[in-house]
Amino acid sequence: MSGAAAMAVTRNEILYSLNEPGDYILGIVECLDGGGHRVHYVREPFRREPDFGVTSVSYDFPEWISKAKPPR
Predict the structure, then answer these.
(1) N or C: which end of the chain has fewer CB within 10 A?
(2) 8-66: per-residue pLDDT in tens?
(3) Could you state, in order of their start, the residue ranges of all structural domains in the chain?
(4) DSSP letters of 1-42?
């Protein structure tokens, strides 16, 4: 949702991205007021594996949007 404070990413998504760093692109869909949407892409988004037992991690949504780049 536009203006959201946080977003959650599952442990499996993070592990997959670390195993395939050159091939993984995190796609973030921002739902806009009025029913539209905007897609943002972040390459190599994660640097380390979450701790054992963690099922998902909450991230600051505006910070991730600021890291996004257009697809190549």
Answers:
(1) C
(2) 999 999 999 999 999 999 999 998 888 899 999 999 999 999 999 999 999 999 999 99
(3) 6-67
(4) -TT-SEEEEEHHHHHHHHHSTTT-EEEEEEEPTTS-EEEEEE
- Quote the distance between the C-alpha of residue 7 and its chain's center: 8
Residues contacting residue 51 through CB under 8 Å, at least 6 positions apart: none
Return the exposure string of 14-28: e unless at least 16 CB atoms fall within 10 Å of the residue's CB, then b: beebbeeeeebebeb
Coil vs helix vs strand at 56: strand
Question: DSSP class of residue 69?
Answer: B
Residue identified by tokens 């979450």 is: 50
